[in-house]
């Protein structure tokens, strides 16, 4: 059993597809074990994406992630990190496999509908960023 962090990004929240995306997790054996709806500040987004601070798109990314509300959830299941990444599809929706979340709901490489932890180690760091001991055991 693993846990991973998912974020439904501002573009997908605006498109009214929170339910459709959460449903894909549930239909594929991932259980939602913690969840919140919130609007990140630019500083929150900058801290969350600090690993990308030297990438040329860091400013754009943090502007976008703070442009509207997001839905953050913790998904639990067998091989949850890789399973979620597979359901998400490639970072660039133009390269995302048919039937993936990004192929179906994302418009561009920056507005790409979802975030998912890329390793078990980062999943733990990202879950701790958003959820305290009262919110997830
Ligand atoms: P992923 O979200 O698939 O793990 P990365 O960790 O490489 O992808 O990048 C984090 C986020 O930064 C991406 O989801 C996307 O929103 C944004 N991003 C990545 N590459 C670019 C790019 N070349 N131009 C603009 N935004 C980008
Ligand atoms: Mg990543």
UniProtKB/TrEMBL annotation:
Q: Nucleoside diphosphate kinase-like domain location, by residue?
A: 1-136
Active-site residues, record numbering mapped to chain:
115 (pros-phosphohistidine intermediate)
**Calcium as UniProt keyword:** no
Q: Which Gene3D superfamilies match?
A: Nucleoside diphosphate kinase-like domain (3.30.70.141)
- Necessary cofactors: Mg(2+)
Give compartment(s). Answer: Cytoplasm
Q: Tell me which UniProt keywords the record has, alphabetically.
A: ATP-binding, Cytoplasm, Kinase, Magnesium, Metal-binding, Nucleotide metabolism, Nucleotide-binding, Phosphoprotein, Transferase
Q: Which residues bind ATP?
A: 9, 57, 85, 91, 102, 112
Q: Does the keyword Protein transport apply?
A: no
Q: Which SUPFAM superfamilies match?
A: Nucleoside diphosphate kinase, NDK (SSF54919)
UniProt GO molecular function: nucleoside diphosphate kinase activity
Q: Which SMART domains match?
A: NDK
Supply the EC number(s). Answer: 2.7.4.6
Report the catalytic activity.
Answer: a 2'-deoxyribonucleoside 5'-diphosphate + ATP = a 2'-deoxyribonucleoside 5'-triphosphate + ADP; a ribonucleoside 5'-diphosphate + ATP = a ribonucleoside 5'-triphosphate + ADP
Report the family membership: Belongs to the NDK family.
- Which NCBIfam families does the annotation name? PRK00668.1 (NF001908)
Which proteins does it associate with, and in what oligomeric form? Homotetramer.
Any idea what job this protein has? Answer: Major role in the synthesis of nucleoside triphosphates other than ATP. The ATP gamma phosphate is transferred to the NDP beta phosphate via a ping-pong mechanism, using a phosphorylated active-site intermediate.
Q: Which PANTHER family match?
A: NUCLEOSIDE DIPHOSPHATE KINASE
Protein's name according to its UniProt entry: Nucleoside diphosphate kinase
Protein source organism: Campylobacter canadensis
- The gene behind this protein is ndk
